[in-house]
């Protein structure tokens, strides 16, 4: 029973139940693992592109008509030579670029804006690194038949259905006008169908953006689920950041030992040791060449206090019992620092007593 209980505790510690820490989020972001919906990119791109067509459609139509008009009224009468062919190719390429450049610029802006909207500014090369796990057929099959793949399939079917319903509805509403286009001029028919196409595009883009909100919410939920941490992971992370508590405790203990050793080496230089008498001991030194006030060179309680008094006896340093002063000096004064002004009078009286005693000796 005992080993079963230990196993349960072990598995509970490894269960991913805790929210990711800020460091874990930062590390996953550096690896390029962020919540992101491709539907947001698609919706924003379609909205920008069809919006651009709506605003720039007249300019693009006139530019294309002028290009064809120039080609069939000017180029068609020229001799077909190598130089002339090169000239025609360069001029037509420039004109085509003038027509498509605005839309290409809009597409670039839309792509950057949609990514900034979701993940902000992020530069990382981690996703580009070679990883043999990505071509593992077993893991690939697991991805294909996973719950995530099923969700993606349902999303695709939903998007196709929504876009299909929207486009069919717009065509159905305008079916009578479409039938009448056979009686109109070519220019009117092209203009009408262009307008209908833009309307269908913008409506579909708005619908995809609405669906992308749901998809982005799901992507955030899935991302948070994937970066969850176990209690053991959090403890290990804390150890990596702060250091192993046992090692830190040993370092602090070593520092205390070194500090105590250095402090004990200063006791023989003291003028007096003020005691409790059993629990506290404070060694005080006064040298008017070094400081205007007496300096605490060592202090301690219990074992350290006994050690200070032993060293003081070994070096014939006077020990004076003053319980309230010893406690106050220990609590308020730092080692190698002058005593506070409130203790000047009491310590001066003790030092005067010690100097008189030393003169008698």
TrEMBL record:
Subcellular location: Cell membrane
InterPro entries referenced in this protein's UniProt entry, alphabetically: FlhB, T3SS_substrate_exporter, T3SS_substrate_exporter_C
Function: Required for formation of the rod structure in the basal body of the flagellar apparatus. Together with FliI and FliH, may constitute the export apparatus of flagellin.
Organism: Halobacillus kuroshimensis
Organismal lineage: Bacteria, Bacillati, Bacillota, Bacilli, Bacillales
Residue segments, region Disordered: 17-36
Membrane topology: Multi-pass membrane protein
Keyword Protein transport listed: yes
Protein name: Flagellar biosynthetic protein FlhB
């Amino acid at each position: 029973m005992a080993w079963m209980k230990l196993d349960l505790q072990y598995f509970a510690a490894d269960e991913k139940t805790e929210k990711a820490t800020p460091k874990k989020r930062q590390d996953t972001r550096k690896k390029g693992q962020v919540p992101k919906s491709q539907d947001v990119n698609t919706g924003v791109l379609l909205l920008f592109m069809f919006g651009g067509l709506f605003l720039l459609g007249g300019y693009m139509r006139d530019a294309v008509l002028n290009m064809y008009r120039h080609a069939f009224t000017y180029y068609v009468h020229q001799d077909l030579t190598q130089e002339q062919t090169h000239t025609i190719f360069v001029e037509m390429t420039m004109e085509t670029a003038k027509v498509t450049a605005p839309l290409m610029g809009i597409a670039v802006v839309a792509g950057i804006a949609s990514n900034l909207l979701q993940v902000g500014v992020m530069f990382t090369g981690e996703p580009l690194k070679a990883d043999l796990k990505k071509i593992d057929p077993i893991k690939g099959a697991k991805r294909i038949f996973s719950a995530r793949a099923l969700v993606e399939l349902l999303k695709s079917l939903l998007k196709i259905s929504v876009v299909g319903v929207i486009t069919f509805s717009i065509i159905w509403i305008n079916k009578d006008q479409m039938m009448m286009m056979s009686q109109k001029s070519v220019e009117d028919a092209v203009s009408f169908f262009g307008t209908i196409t833009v309307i269908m595009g913008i409506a579909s883009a708005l619908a995809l953006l609405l669906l992308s909100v749901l998809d982005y919410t799901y992507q955030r939920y899935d991302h948070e689920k994937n970066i969850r941490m176990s209690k053991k992971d959090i403890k290990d992370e804390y150890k990596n950041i702060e250091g192993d508590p046992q090692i830190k405790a040993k370092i602090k203990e070593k520092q205390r030992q070194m500090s105590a050793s250095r402090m004990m080496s200063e006791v023989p230089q003291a003028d007096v040791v003020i005691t409790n008498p059993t629990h506290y001991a404070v060694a005080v030194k006064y040298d008017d060449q070094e400081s205007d006030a007496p300096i605490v060179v060592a202090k301690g309680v219990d074992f350290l206090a006994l050690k200070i008094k032993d060293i003081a006896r070994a070096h014939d340093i006077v020990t004076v019992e003053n319980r309230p002063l010893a406690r106050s000096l220990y609590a308020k004064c730092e080692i190698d620092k002058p005593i506070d002004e409130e203790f000047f009078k009491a310590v001066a009286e003790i030092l005067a007593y010690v100097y008189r005693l030393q003169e008698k000796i």
